[in-house]
Design a protein that fits this description.
Length: 299
């Protein structure tokens, strides 16, 4: 692919637009839950301004994480142009200079903080602490924690518990068991994307000393875990049924069908660049899960 260094196209590729679904889904679910419950909290009407700020913050933090990952993996030698199986990366391909990437990381980090700061008006001063944790772990994920198999734990926390529950909290200044369960289920579903990514890269990660969960537990256990996350997430949707939102449990079963089909494809491919097809399908499945759960809650 011909890409001019530091061009607009280079930066678009560096931000990895397809990954933004993972940032959108938790906020979608948190907002749908808040909208459903807003009638119960008369003193806290649903705020569209806060909703947009939550979504923008999630998008910018995802882009920031992608840029940090691109830079750090290249610097550590994890992203080798000759052996890499995943989608091409900006620094490794020479699309973006190292200095430009450093400046971009600083800019997106500052921008995320500026966008997130007004949420203090809706969620209180504790939003500053939440924002700081998001920024700190955004850096720690790529620089340290992903190398010791903690990536999946961070996905559960920062693509599930934090964005879903905090989006809800910003709107209604409360949380519920239903919100916590939905947040955990969301994190589990999004972790499927990391599982596919690390399953594809298991050999190169192991050679580079990157001990991801996949490297630690092995190929067969990873396949079982991938299928299991879809099943568990859907079963956790029973909490919606107990609270009268049966559509939010029933509709995501369509996601489980898509997830199963992707699992079978992943099992048949097993190794190599062809697994990138499963990566794309998993991203699609995650978006469908978020969309179906949100629609179910609104119904």
């Amino acid at each position: 692919m011909e890409v001019k260094k530091n061009s607009f196209k280079a930066w678009i590729l560096a931000t990895r637009p397809k990954t933004l679904t993972g940032a959108a889904v938790p906020v979608m679910i948190g907002l749908a839950l808040a909208w459903k419950d807003s009638a119960q909290y008369i003193g806290h009407p649903f705020s569209w301004t806060a909703a947009v700020l939550c979504l923008l913050f999630a998008f910018i933090m995802q882009i920031d994480a992608n840029l940090i990952n691109d830079f750090v993996d290249y610097a550590k030698g994890t992203d080798d142009r000759e052996t890499r199986l995943g989608p091409e990366r900006a620094c490794a391909q020479g699309w973006v200079s190292i200095e430009a990437m450093k400046h971009a990381i600083a800019l997106t980090t500052i921008l995320a903080c500026l966008v997130g700061l007004p949420l203090v008006l809706y969620g209180g001063m504790e939003m500053i602490l939440i924002g700081m944790l998001c920024v700190v772990f955004c850096f720690l994920y790529t620089t340290h924690l992903s190398y010791i198999g903690m990536g999946d734990v961070l996905v559960l926390a920062f693509f599930g518990l934090v964005p879903v529950s905090m989006t809800y909290y910003v709107q209604l200044h409360a949380t519920t068991l239903e919100v916590i369960v939905a947040a955990v289920a969301c994190g589990i579903v999004i972790d499927a994307l990391l599982l596919v990514n690390n399953f594809r890269d298991r050999d190169t990660d192991k050679a580079a000393g990157k001990n991801t969960l996949v490297v630690r537990i092995g190929e067969k256990a990873t396949m079982q875990l991938y299928m299991g996350v879809g099943i568990v997430a859907c079963l956790m949707g029973l909490v919606f049924g107990f609270n009268g939102s049966w559509w939010a449990f029933v509709l995501p079963l369509a996601y489980l069908l898509l997830h199963t089909l992707t699992f079978l494809k992943m099992k048949s491919i097993w190794k190599g660049r062809e697994l990138n097809k499963c990566l794309g399908e998993t991203a699609r499945n995650i978006f469908m899960y978020g969309l179906l759960v949100s629609i179910g809650l609104l119904l």
